Amino acid sequence: MFWYTDVVTTASASTTASTVIGYARVSTIGQTLEQQTEALTAAGAGKTFHDVMSGARDDRPGFTECMRYLREGDTLTVWRLDRLGRNMRAIINTLHELTQRGVTVRSFHDGVDTSTSTGRMVGGILMSIAEYERELVRERTALKLEHARKSGWKFGRPAKLTSDQAALAQRMKASGETATTICRTLGIGRTTLYRYLAECAEDLSISR
Known about the structure:
This protein is of the alpha/beta class. The chain has seven helices and five strands. It has two domains: about 5-130, Rossmann fold; about 165-205, Arc Repressor Mutant, subunit A (Orthogonal Bundle), CATH 1.10.10. Strands 1-3-2-4-5 form a five-stranded mixed β-sheet, sandwiched between helices. Helix 3 crosses helix 4.
């Protein structure tokens, strides 16, 4: 997909809000950045970074350069919050990172301005929702894994030996063959052999 990134200097010598940085993005080359960049300039953006590419992509050079450019005390201004990430979680992560770095975030259409108490409250609510969702995912995953284990599922790499090969490995080991010979015969590595022998020994002790 075609992408384009650049940095546009928009501030005049009289501009005092030199720490206001803008970021604009449109998805296709057929769309125009003009509306966004004009709004960012009117908001005092001294520099505007922009991309012409899908927001679903992680490799957005203009956004990456913008994040590198921002310093503590700066203000990042965007047209909408969806310019900050490809999904809600990515947006929340970006907001959290910028807040930790001491960068203010303002969005024209979402009512977020982290320099105000209301804006910080909105940002905090969004971050809390994202954290709550992460906790739910972790809990659901843990419950599913526990249920699978109780149902007899085994996790890890798929088996490399058939039951006949595993039995042959046991017989060769019992007859005194070296691990090198067994591995060469079955075409497996030592780690796989030792894992199978350990599992067989464990199964044998349980059956007793």
